[in-house]
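Priority: medium. Attachment 1 of 2:
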């Protein structure tokens, strides 16, 4: 039915293509991220690096992908960016995931390394590894145009890399269409290490829905709730100006990091500096993922440069480098897209260099004669170019912040605002809510985990930008909704008003489960229980009902939660084994542990003494032994994962699963 039914395996070294049924994985792992993680666990040794040919690059879709209630995929690989080369997963939407399903494939697993550049061509049953020497060196847009012209198929759906991926930059991304990206974790670098320029898919099989009437009813209920209920404010914002509206509100709420987290107050903000203003002036149309009526991506034409933007692309190369010029930001954004660089990683590293330059730790002599002055467009453009091409000082930066700091020396790591070798996102509320807290619990990909007190920062922007709602009314609605969320999560309605870590682990597990449920099913995790405090609802139970109607296979909310737990325990066990193999220690940047310097939360800080308590509670909720940081034997046995017990206990490790 709505499962395509096939896992496609491609070995680029031996140029072999094999197919196997998805069915053997469905009972325990259901689909999407969960099956993809299981495939990864079974095939990728913890000891290898992200650029090793044995690494897998996995494109995974869920049972709802390609239907009216799903359009997403997850890309999974061992990350060349993350500390200790751990597993990384990152989402990608657009039409590509649905086209995979229409071609007959739930998952594409790519291993090995080609001797010469190639692309993977898929047209239903036809699967070929083709020469791509003529595409090597092209940017992501040139690549897609060239392939569509070459194959005479304008409907071809393509996921590809740019020069940054070809050069195996650790934070290179994979791009599809105008701005759908698999951006977190350096998966573009993994693709480049395999000499794989693109995956081009054409599918004409379509999908069958097992119970069309029930599925249609679920679709109508979902959109009715989110269009007519609390979610209408958020949906309207996403449709009109996108996540850029949240960025604008973040500036007004003292959430934007100015000058590499030296301040959270953007000086003298003006209307023409807002994302909303830029979109109003330059948007030529909304675009989005297959079958989604929201179309939350903005296609813009400014300064003679056309392209798309959505989500956190609105943040990079703005306040963090002390830039308030929207056209400056747009040029940087589009250059990153063309080269295939993750914009916030590139912007964060650039801002770090500017901080080092300000402090006198580096000079223009260290950066090929380019003064790394705050707000310099010349410095930003040059750094992007050099990163993507690994030229000059760009070679120094291409593996991420920690390797760069080791090469620079001079105690430069002290000033780096990174965790797990990832730059911290520059739009954040309180140090304890939006930055350091995100990384207290090991995560393979950046997940916005926050304590109850941070919910105010998440909901208020949606309401504050709604015409006709006063600040007082926005605060009243915020209080009601966030209190509802706090009570639902912790049983305590005023939990969010307490500036504490007491319920952080509970929130983390709820958020993880909500996001994972969607990544398993193929549903968009934005319009889901990930953010019920801004009115959006789509729970694991809702996912289960839709999966049952779509596939004809009985699925319950409890089964979704267990599938999430299986994949999360595999992920955390893999991370633990990678830490043992590579031995790099994790430390939170000192600046995030210091009192917030200014803004409405001035003086807020993290109570480091609470970290063991948070970790203990998280382990308790997830069935993990806090002393070994490995899953408990009884929990793995309950989940039918005895093979994991054997795999870990047969290793030469001091810690065992008990």
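Attachment 2 of 2:
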């Amino acid at each position: 039915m709505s499962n395509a039914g096939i896992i496609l395996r491609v070995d680029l070294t031996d140029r072999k293509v094999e197919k196997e049924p998805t069915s053997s994985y469905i009972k325990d792992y259901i689909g999407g991220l969960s099956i993809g993680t299981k495939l990864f666990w079974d095939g990728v040794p913890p000891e290898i690096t992200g650029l090793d040919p044995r690494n897998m690059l996995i494109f995974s879709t869920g049972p709802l992908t390609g239907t009216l209630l799903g359009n997403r995929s997850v890309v999974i690989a061992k990350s060349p960016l993350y500390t200790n080369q751990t597993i990384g997963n990152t989402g990608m939407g657009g039409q590509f995931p649905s086209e995979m399903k229409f071609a007959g494939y739930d998952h594409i697993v790519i291993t090995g390394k080609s001797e010469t550049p190639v692309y993977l061509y898929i047209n239903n049953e036809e699967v070929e590894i083709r020469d791509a020497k003529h595409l090597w060196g092209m940017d992501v847009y040139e690549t897609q145009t060239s392939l569509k012209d070459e194959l005479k198929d304008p409907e071809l759906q393509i996921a590809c890399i740019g020069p940054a991926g070809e050069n195996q930059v650790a934070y290179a991304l994979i791009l599809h269409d105008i701005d759908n990206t698999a951006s977190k974790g350096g998966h573009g670098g993994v693709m480049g290490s395999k000499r794989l320029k693109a995956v081009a898919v054409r599918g004409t099989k379509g999908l069958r829905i097992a119970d069309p009437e029930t599925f249609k009813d679920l679709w109508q209920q979902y959109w009715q709730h989110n269009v007519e209920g609390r979610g209408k404010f958020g949906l309207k914002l996403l449709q009109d100006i996108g996540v850029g509206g949240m960025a604008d509100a973040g500036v007004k709420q003292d959430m934007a990091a100015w000058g590499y987290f030296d301040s959270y107050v953007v000086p003298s903000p003006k209307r023409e500096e807002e994302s909303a203003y830029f979109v109003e002036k330059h948007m030529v149309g909304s675009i989005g993922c297959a079958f989604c009526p929201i179309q939350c991506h903005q296609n813009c034409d400014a300064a003679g440069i056309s392209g798309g933007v959505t989500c956190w692309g609105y943040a990079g190369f703005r306040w963090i480098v002390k830039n308030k010029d929207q056209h400056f930001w747009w040029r940087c954004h589009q250059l990153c897209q063309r080269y295939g660089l993750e914009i916030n990683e590139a912007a964060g590293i650039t801002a770090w260099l500017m901080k080092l330059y300000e402090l006198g730790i580096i000079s223009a002599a260290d950066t090929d004669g380019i003064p790394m002055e705050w707000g310099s467009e010349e410095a930003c453009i040059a750094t992007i170019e050099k990163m993507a091409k690994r030229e000059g000082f760009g070679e120094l930066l291409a593996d991420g912040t920690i390797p760069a700091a080791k090469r620079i020396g001079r105690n430069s790591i002290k000033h780096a605002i990174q965790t797990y070798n990832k730059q911290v996102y520059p739009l954040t509320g309180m140090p304890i809510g939006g930055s350091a807290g995100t990384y207290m619990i090991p995560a393979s990909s950046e997940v916005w985990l926050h304590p109850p007190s941070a919910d105010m920062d998440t909901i208020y922007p949606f309401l504050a930008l709604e015409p006709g709602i006063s600040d007082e009314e926005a605060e009243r609605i915020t209080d009601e909704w966030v209190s509802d969320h706090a009570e639902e999560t912790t049983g305590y309605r005023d939990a969010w008003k307490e500036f504490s870590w007491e319920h952080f682990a509970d929130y983390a597990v709820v958020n993880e489960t909500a996001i994972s449920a969607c990544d398993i099913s193929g549903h968009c995790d934005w319009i889901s229980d990930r953010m019920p405090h801004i009115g959006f609802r789509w729970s694991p139970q809702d996912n289960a009902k839709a999966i049952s109607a779509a596939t004809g296979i009985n699925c319950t909310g409890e089964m979704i939660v267990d599938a999430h737990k299986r994949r999360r325990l595999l992920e955390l066990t893999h991370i633990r084994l990678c830490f043992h193999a590579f031995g790099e220690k994790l430390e939170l940047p000192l600046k995030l542990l210091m009192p917030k310097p200014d803004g409405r939360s001035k003086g807020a800080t993290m109570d480091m003494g609470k970290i063991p308590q948070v970790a203990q509670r998280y382990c308790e909720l997830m069935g993990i032994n806090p002393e070994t940081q490995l899953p408990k034997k009884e929990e793995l046995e309950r989940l039918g994962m005895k093979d994991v017990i054997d795999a870990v206990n047969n290793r030469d490790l001091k810690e065992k699963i008990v």
